[in-house]
Design brief:
Distance between the termini: 31 Å
Helix content: 10-25%
Number of strands: 10
Strand order of the largest sheet: 3-1-6-2-9
Order of helices and strands: HEHEHEEEEEEEHE
Structural class: alpha+beta
């Protein structure tokens, strides 16, 4: 079975599905989007649809520096809020707020380049009122918060006609059967 939770197998599986479907460099899925687990064995469409909150998908273009800020924002709570795909993050859990990331590496093995542009797939479920993307807040400092709000208008955003359950269903169909959720750790504490 694929269990929910930001670091559960379902989060990694759904993030992989988003990244694959939208052909992006990275993907992000919030733990709140995961509504249940996917049981082992053959799945019905209803089981797949029940695993993720219905939402449209977006592609956002960010610089590597903005991706790093996004990852720092993911690490603000004791447990990461989101599952990721396309990136391996090593962080110091005892580090200062907004300075915990020690290394961010793409699945290609390359380090995140602060100046390069990257595309990220995510669902509209991660957005707040007025299309704010709080994880995209920038210019953040410990004890002071972030000076630049995560407004979508800051970036190039492409809205997809495809929804979360549709993308997950298609991805599961293409994987070798029986499907096993990814077990690799993508957000790893290091000192």
């Amino acid at each position: 079975p694929a269990s929910p939770g930001a670091e559960g197998g379902l989060a990694r599986l759904v993030a992989d599905a988003y990244r694959n479907a939208l052909r992006t460099d990275l993907a992000l899925v919030g733990a709140a989007e995961l509504q249940g687990e996917l049981p082992a064995g053959p799945l019905t469409a209803a089981q797949v649809e029940g695993a993720v909150a219905p939402s449209s998908l977006l592609t956002i273009s960010l610089t590597g520096a903005e991706v790093r800020e996004l990852v720092e924002n993911l690490l603000l709570s004791p447990e990461p809020c989101c599952g990721v795909s396309g990136i391996l993050v090593e962080f110091d859990p005892r580090g200062r707020e907004f300075d915990r990331v020690r290394r961010a590496r793409l699945v290609t093995g390359d380090d995140l380049d602060r100046k390069r542009s990257y595309t990220i797939a995510l669902s509209e479920a991660l957005l707040g009122p007025d299309s704010t993307f709080s994880l995209g807040a920038g210019d953040c400092r410990a004890g002071k918060g972030c000076r630049t709000p995560g407004q979508l208008s800051r970036w190039t955003v492409t809205r997809s006609e495809r929804g979360t359950a549709e993308v997950l269903r298609e991805y599961l169909r293409r994987l070798p059967q029986p499907v096993a959720p990814p077990t690799d750790r993508r957000i790893v504490p290091r000192r």
